[in-house]
Specification:
1022 residues, 45% helix, single chain, seven-stranded mixed β-sheet, 29 strands
Length: 1022
């Protein structure tokens, strides 16, 4: 019998009530999520335990779709569960929150063996209420049905203990349970459909939020609600204050949906709401403290209840090298963290074993989303005995006395010693655990010192590991970590079990409230059954039998093979992007490909939209049509598990993708009601930066700059109108609904909408290329360079240059986005002149000092680009010292100079030229050369060689100066014999001042040949 909306609510209430939750009611004012209900927002604060469940209608105005989308509504219904603290118990975490959640799905009729249930990374953050946590989106056959979060902070207050939040999306669960196409015809309860109750109000609210809400009145309401919240806080009325924070938040959401909030305003609104939310949170904490935390009963008992006594280490049976196995069992790691753990342990484990003085065989590391595995072959049973010689104080400061020779009755001689040990010697001996009489006097470095011979017996390996393993786990660091229990340990996601075995012996240790054992866990879809590991050698066999593929490369190869085979079945080719493949590989332990399809009508959407939705939102592999540049109406998902219930999984994935495409279709349909040009004025509502104006102001600056720099970048008269039109329209798509929803498509959507607006194809192409690192067309190159120059010059003028590792405005990327395309297109371009022209368009002053810093910054990025291309450090620096303002010319010069320094005769070329530079570089004056003053034949010969070799026979910057590295060094090669003879026979620093200066002038002419080309003094061997 199909489920109803009402039956889902009743079943969840029954389930969580039976697991100790208080069942409360929805809040009486509009909230954006169940998190904002006081039963969550306030009650997760402080130390009191709190387990609660309730239904919460949640209002998100910008999710309104006029009742047309099967999955998106301005009002959706959540079922909220708070578990405080984390209920996990026992070394395997059998009663952990994930297990309870999965049991609740079973209560609804969702069998994990018939579906694909995934925990997909979700780093939850709500800046408006200064709250964040880590956890997952829970996907059911590709559809998000739950948010599962370990709260870390609420209202700016760090939480202790951490609370678990489970937020079910009830509409989506109903659709999944009934395999429905949409929600509207499904039963709400008592024979009444969901649509009969909600569809008309969904349409009306959508129309109000998107079209009717009066911006000025809503702004006024926001200000009134904000003031009222302040008044309530001042009066100590915490819950009423919170009510008005919620009203502020809802008013902001309405304004945002109406497109009335600029980027700068958004931050100001968030700051204000965050300030109020923190005031409420702090006041509530103080109030509960004043009441002496009435819900806090039997504190301390919980901490000890789950603690098991640590077993002792019995190593008497470990007498030979054995395999070692450590498995860290975790709740699902984010895809990037799977790789982070692998990298960390690949380096750390061999180093640790060396530090512990344990010999071993191969070390292997494996990582999946649920387990981090270290396997060591032939680990020694104990450390070797050691004898360390420790140096102490000088002998004369440590021992006072003398020794004499003594012969006994049988003729054996010995030494009788009468010595006194100083406090320094006694202290040194005590520190090293020996008697002072055992100290030895030895010579070292020409002096005598006392030494302690410290003997240390090797400890059994099990004892050593028991101490070292907690630290090893602690050494695995992640970009974002979380706390989850009273151990206070932070890790990527909660640790739920350890398997630690040396041979068949358990290595006992405890970390993060979890004790090691020999029990692993199986696949999530199989209910995570216990897997008893008999010994370290048997681990891999047991895991393989459980269907788990530990090796990442094996999982990846399996995915690629299955995806390619599936694509071949429909006559297409899978689009397998490395980043997506790596992510999918790190999300599963048993990969099974699922082929699905979608309505071919959606192929009319922009191709990049379809691909982006499939890859970014759903982690699907699109399939290209071999006969055309289009896609096929198919996709390939990768299930974590086997093929049981595969049809159900496929249908679920098809539904969610259809809903995603319907959403994209809604955006495109609404967007193309206007031409792209008509969106441009709306850029005035988007603030680029408070000191630099709006995005419309930036667009105007770019358009002006394009006119200035286009000729220098090789734009012809015919191309100029195309380039200027592209510059005029290039940012207009930022205010379209499609780009607002999917920011990764900016520029791409602009190009698509330009075509649909009747713009020339060349204009559309340039717009679409603007965010590419290297645009392919000349108009695309010009507008991209102008855009990035404007950002660099403006931000530096505003005092916002990157510092250290911080680069919030992406200026390093912008600088590379200038030099890289100039190099690739091999276009000579004067960056110094371009920066100066851009500075004139800025609304704030960009003085000469700031311009110099910009050029220095760009030079730094240019250096990185050239070195990353494999060019030698000293060669790059030599060229950039002379011509960094022209990236393309610099790249050519580096290539040429690299070839020269690789020549066999380079060791004769560079020293000859270097002699001319070294003897003249300290001269502050440039000397003229007068042929009449020459005395020696060799200096006359050198002058003649210069006259003959240098083009045109003139030695001046304006005429005869080489322009490339090759020209310059070819001249030097011809001059080398004359240079060497000159230095062998002629005294440059002659007593006669005129003769000396004439000779210096001659050498200055040679040294100056590299001006504007390269500074060879930076080269190795100069």
């Amino acid at each position: 019998m199909p489920s109803s909306f009402q039956s889902i609510i009743l079943k969840l209430q029954d389930f969580w009530a039976s697991h100790g939750c208080l069942i409360t009611q929805p809040y009486y004012t509009q909230v954006g999520a169940g998190t904002m209900n006081p039963a969550t927002f306030l009650r997760v604060l402080g130390p009191e335990p709190w387990n609660v469940a309730y239904v919460e209608p949640s209002v998100r105005p910008d999710d309104g779709r006029y009742g047309e989308n099967p999955n998106r509504f301005q009002l959706h219904t959540q079922f909220q569960v708070i578990l405080k603290p984390d209920p996990a118990a026992g070394p395997a975490g059998r009663e952990g929150p994930q297990e309870l959640y999965l049991e609740s799905l079973k209560a609804l009729g969702i069998d994990p063996r018939q579906h694909d249930i995934r925990f997909v990374e979700d780093n939850w953050e709500q800046p408006a209420i200064s709250a964040w946590g880590l956890g997952w989106e829970v996907w059911l056959d590709g559809q998000e049905i739950t948010q599962f979060t370990y709260f870390q902070q609420m209202g700016g207050v760090v939480l202790d203990p951490v609370s678990v939040e489970i937020t079910y999306g009830l509409e989506r669960i109903l659709i999944a349970l009934n395999n429905a196409k949409a929600i509207w015809n499904e039963e709400y309860g008592a024979g009444v459909t969901y649509g009969e109750i909600r569809r008309q109000e969904e349409f009306e609210h959508s129309k109000y939020y998107f079209e009717t809400a009066d911006v000025e009145r809503v702004r006024a309401m926001y200000d009134l609600f904000s003031a009222e919240a302040d008044a309530c806080l001042a009066a100590g009325l915490i819950v009423p204050a919170h009510d008005y924070v919620l009203k502020c938040s809802h008013s902001f959401n309405i304004l945002d949906t109406r497109g009335a909030i600029s980027v700068a305003e958004r931050q100001a609104f968030f700051r204000r709401i965050r300030e109020l939310a923190k005031g409420v949170a702090v006041a509530y904490g103080e109030q509960r403290k004043g009441l002496e935390y009435p819900l806090l009963k039997d504190e301390g008992k919980r901490m000890n209840a789950s603690r098991e006594s640590k077993p002792s280490v019995n190593s008497s049976f470990i007498t030979h090298p054995s395999s070692f196995l450590l498995e860290i069992g975790v709740e699902e790691l984010p895809a990037d963290d799977v790789d982070t753990a692998y990298t960390a342990l690949s380096t750390r484990v061999p180093t640790l074993l060396k530090e512990l003085n344990l010999t071993h065989g191969d070390v292997r590391i494996f990582t999946t989303p649920r387990r981090i595995v270290v396997a060591v072959a032939s680990l020694s049973p104990n450390q070797p005995d050691r004898e360390d010689l420790v140096k102490g104080p000088p002998a004369d400061k440590a021992i006072v006395g003398h020794a004499s020779s003594v012969t006994d009755s049988v003729g054996e001689s010995s030494h009788a010693t009468s010595v006194t040990y100083t406090p320094a010697a006694i202290g040194f001996a005590k520190k090293n655990g020996i008697d002072p009489s055992a100290l030895e006097v030895r010579e070292e470095g020409g002096g005598k010192y006392v030494f302690a011979v410290v003997k240390q017996k090797g400890r059994p390996t099990p004892e050593v590991l028991a101490e070292a393993l907690p630290k090893l786990v602690a050494d695995i660091k992640f970009e974002k970590s979380m706390r989850w229990n009273d151990s206070g340990v932070a890790f990527s996601r909660p640790i739920r079990w350890y398997v630690a075995l040396l041979g068949d012996m358990v290595i006992p240790f405890e970390y993060a409230g979890v004790t090691s054992g020999n029990l692993s866990r199986g696949l999530r879809p199989y209910d995570s059954p216990e897997i008893k590991i008999a010994s370290a050698d048997k681990y891999f066999e047991a895991i393989r039998e459980a269907g788990i593929i530990l090796d990442k490369e094996e999982r990846k190869a399996s995915i690629m093979a299955q995806v390619n085979e599936a694509a071949h079945l429909v006559g297409g080719e899978a689009i397998i992007e490395d980043g997506l493949l790596n992510e999918v590989t790190n999300l599963i332990e048993m990969p099974t490909a699922v082929m699905g399809g979608f309505n071919s009508e959606f192929l009319s959407l922009p191709k990049d939209v379809l691909i982006s939705v499939m890859k970014k939102h759903q982690r699907y592999f699109p399939i290209s049509n071999l006969q055309s540049p289009n896609l096929l109406p198919h996709f390939i998902a990768i299930r974590n598990g086997d093929d049981i219930g595969i049809d159900t999984v496929r249908e679920g994935n098809e539904h969610v993708l259809g809903a995603r495409f319907a959403d994209a279709n809604f955006f495109v349909r609404e967007d193309v009601k206007l031409k792209l040009e008509e969106y441009r004025p709306r850029l005035s509502s988007l603030t680029f930066h408070t000191k630099l104006g709006s995005m419309l102001d930036k667009s105007e600056r770019i358009t002006k700059l394009v006119r200035e720099i286009a000729p220098a970048l090789g734009i012809t008269r015919d191309q100029l109108p195309i380039t200027e039109r592209a510059a005029f329209l290039m940012k207009a798509d930022l205010v379209t609904q499609m780009v607002t929803e999917m920011t990764s498509l900016q520029g791409i959507i602009g190009g698509e909408y330009a075509l649909r607006s009747g713009e020339q194809s060349d204009v559309a192409t340039a717009i679409a290329e603007q965010y590419q690192t290297v645009p392919q067309t000349k108009p695309g190159l010009v507008i991209a360079v102008a855009d990035r120059l404007d950002s660099l010059v403006g931000m530096f003028a505003a005092g916002l240059a990157p510092t250290g590792a911080k680069d919030p405005f992406g200026l390093r990327r912008a600088a590379i986005g200038i030099v890289q395309p100039l190099i690739e297109h091999d276009v000579d371009f004067d960056l110094a002149d371009a920066v100066k022209k851009s500075a004139k368009t800025q609304p704030i002053e960009c003085n000469a000092e700031a311009q110099a810093k910009i050029l220095e910054f760009v030079t730094g990025r240019l250096s990185v680009v050239l070195k990353d291309a494999g060019c030698k450090h000293d060669v790059v620096e030599a060229v950039l010292a002379a011509q960094s303002a022209n990236p393309a010319a610099s790249a050519r010069a580096v290539k040429q100079l690299s070839a020269w320094v690789s020549r066999e005769d380079w060791s004769t070329i560079l020293p000859g030229y270097a002699r001319c530079v070294r003897i003249t570089r300290d001269q502050k004056e440039s000397f003229k050369v007068d042929e009449k003053i020459f005395v020696e034949k060799e200096e006359k010969d050198l002058f003649a060689a210069i006259q003959k070799t240098v083009k045109g026979g003139a030695l001046s910057q304006s005429k005869g100066q080489p322009s490339t590295v090759n020209e310059f060094l070819e001249i030097i090669v011809k001059l080398i014999p004359s240079i060497n003879t000159f230095f062998d026979k002629v005294l440059v620093m002659a007593e006669d001042k005129k003769v000396k200066e004439n000779r210096l002038g001659l050498l200055q002419r040679i040294a100056s040949l590299s001006n504007g080309i390269a500074d060879l003094s930076t080269l190795e061997g100069f």
